[in-house]
């Protein structure tokens, strides 16, 4: 296109724009005149409507164009309360060694004052190669098949400005049978001040979830696209744009790099044959170094808050899991103890359910002890109401319990030879086992004495005829019965 033609088209475009502006101004003046000619009340009404729609449009425009909000890191408990919970677990006999070791590592790294950066990502994305590129002296094995890192490796490295870093190469995620290695990787990522998440293409759903999980803790995160030299320039830019959209603000920076390493390919020979060739690729990681320098510029002390928050938040979850398992084990012991007491108390029972009043004290004590175990405050009225409801439920389901107990006697000959009273004792073992398990499950989930929920669980448990449960209660009944016989023999 010639220069004169471009000027002519530009002039025509400017003229068209001016004509449109002139027409819009003329139309606006005409509307203003018609608006002023309207009655005053109608002017105010239309004005209010126009202002409303103008504000609504401005709000929508701001919502579309507003800068992304900084993600708030996951909340973590204060250290003192966490240590108190760990001490309580110690008193209950739980193994808290791993939790205390994590707190010790948190203190050790804080005292060291060095910046830790974790290399995170799925297998075969080039983490070990990137480690060698960031720290050429590191002895990190790599293999094109992937999955060469089995443990966390710490290597000293330096940024271009001379600041020292501790680089952590962690096992790759999504490795078949590598759940333990993945747990190591996640734990080390939380201990680090910053994280480099390495990928080799578009993020899969699982990778996007990992990125969001890491960003959830609020620490600096760089999303690095490795093997960028294998992409044409246009495709590379499009891929980076997709990564930014998928990350959705989770990553502080998205960069393209080439970690180098080694590659294998098949080369054709002049004689028509072929051979396997392995060669080195030069690293190109300048964008990553620049992002790392910027994100870690505040130093270890300034980054320590987010790092400690991440570690304590994860410890909070792990402590909660250990608390739940410890309480479940304690509840199992409590329920077994009361089931055995119920067997002893039911030795002379006429029929299960009809004389549950005799066992009322046991049911009340069981409810009170389980509520105390789960830290649920209950009043005497609540306990009485629950026991009363449990009695009605047991009476309704007594035929089912008797049927289960009768069938179990045939399966356990040792019980069948002890006499008719064993049926009732066995039934009471089943009843109190069901009551205790139903109540413990409800307290653990609802954190309150929910009578309806506990009642529904009790109905389900009363009809549970699983072999493992029957075997446990049969062994408990047999033990209590034989102990009673031994006591009688001793007295005689």
UniProtKB/TrEMBL annotation:
In its keyword annotation, does this UniProt entry include ATP-binding?
no
G domain mapped to chain residues? 117-227
| PANTHER family reported in the protein's UniProt record | TRANSLATION INITIATION FACTOR IF-2 (PTHR42714:SF6), TRNA MODIFICATION GTPASE GTPBP3 (PTHR42714)
Q: Which top-rank group of organisms is this from?
A: Bacteria
Q: Which InterPro entries match?
A: GTP-bd (IPR006073), P-loop_NTPase (IPR027417)
Which SUPFAM superfamilies does this entry report, sorted A to Z?
Answer: P-loop containing nucleoside triphosphate hydrolases
Say yes or no: keyword Transmembrane helix present.
yes
The protein in question is named GTPase domain-containing protein
What residue ranges are annotated as transmembrane?
Answer: 42-65
The signal peptide annotation in the UniProt record is none
- Write out the entry's keywords from A to Z: Membrane, Transmembrane, Transmembrane helix
């Amino acid at each position: 296109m010639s220069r004169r033609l471009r000027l002519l088209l530009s002039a025509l475009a400017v003229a068209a724009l001016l004509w449109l502006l002139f027409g819009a101004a003329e139309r606006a003046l005409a509307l203003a005149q018609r608006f002023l000619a309207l009655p005053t009340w109608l002017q105010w009404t239309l004005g209010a409507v126009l202002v409303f729609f103008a504000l609504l449009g401005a709000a929508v425009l701001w919502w579309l164009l507003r800068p992304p909000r900084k993600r708030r890191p996951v909340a973590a408990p204060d250290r003192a309360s966490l240590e108190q919970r760990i001490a309580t677990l110690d008193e209950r006999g739980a193994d808290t060694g791993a939790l205390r070791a994590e707190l010790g590592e948190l203190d050790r790294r804080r005292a060291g004052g060095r910046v830790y950066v974790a290399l995170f990502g799925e297998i075969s994305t080039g983490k070990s190669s990137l480690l060698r590129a960031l720290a050429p002296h590191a002895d990190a094995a790599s293999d094109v098949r992937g999955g060469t890192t089995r443990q966390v490796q710490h290597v000293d490295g330096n940024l271009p400005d001379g600041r020292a870093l501790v680089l952590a190469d962690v096992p790759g995620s999504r490795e078949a049978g590598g759940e333990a290695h993945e747990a190591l990787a996640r734990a080390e990522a939380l201990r680090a001040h910053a994280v480099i998440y390495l990928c080799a293409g578009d993020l899969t759903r699982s990778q996007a979830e990992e990125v969001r999980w890491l960003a959830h803790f609020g620490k600096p995160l760089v999303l690095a696209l490795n093997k960028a030299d294998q992409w044409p320039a246009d495709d590379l830019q499009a891929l980076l744009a997709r990564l930014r959209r998928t990350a959705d603000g989770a990553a502080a920076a998205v960069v393209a790099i080439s970690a180098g390493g080694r590659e294998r390919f098949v080369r054709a020979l002049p004689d028509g044959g072929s051979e396997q060739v392995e060669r080195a690729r030069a690293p190109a990681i300048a964008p990553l170094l620049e992002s790392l320098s910027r994100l870690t510029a505040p130093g270890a002390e300034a980054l320590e808050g987010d790092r400690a928050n991440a570690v304590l938040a994860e410890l909070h979850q792990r402590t909660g899991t250990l608390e739940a398992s410890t309480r479940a084990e304690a509840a199992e012991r409590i329920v077994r103890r009361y089931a055995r007491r119920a067997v002893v108390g039911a030795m002379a029972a006429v029929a299960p359910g009809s004389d549950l009043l005799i066992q009322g004290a046991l049911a009340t004590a069981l409810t009170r002890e389980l509520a105390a175990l789960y830290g649920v405050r209950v009043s005497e009225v609540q306990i009485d109401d629950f026991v009363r409801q449990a009695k009605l439920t047991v009476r309704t389901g007594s035929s089912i319990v008797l049927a289960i107990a009768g069938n179990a006697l045939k399966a356990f000959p040792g019980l069948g030879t002890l006499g008719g009273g064993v049926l009732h004792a066995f039934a009471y073992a089943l009843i109190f086992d069901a009551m205790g398990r139903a109540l413990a499950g409800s307290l653990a989930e609802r954190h309150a004495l929910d009578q309806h929920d506990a009642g529904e669980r009790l109905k389900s448990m009363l009809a549970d005829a699983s072999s493992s449960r029957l075997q446990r209660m049969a062994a408990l009944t047999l033990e209590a019965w034989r102990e009673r016989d031994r006591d009688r023999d001793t007295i005689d």
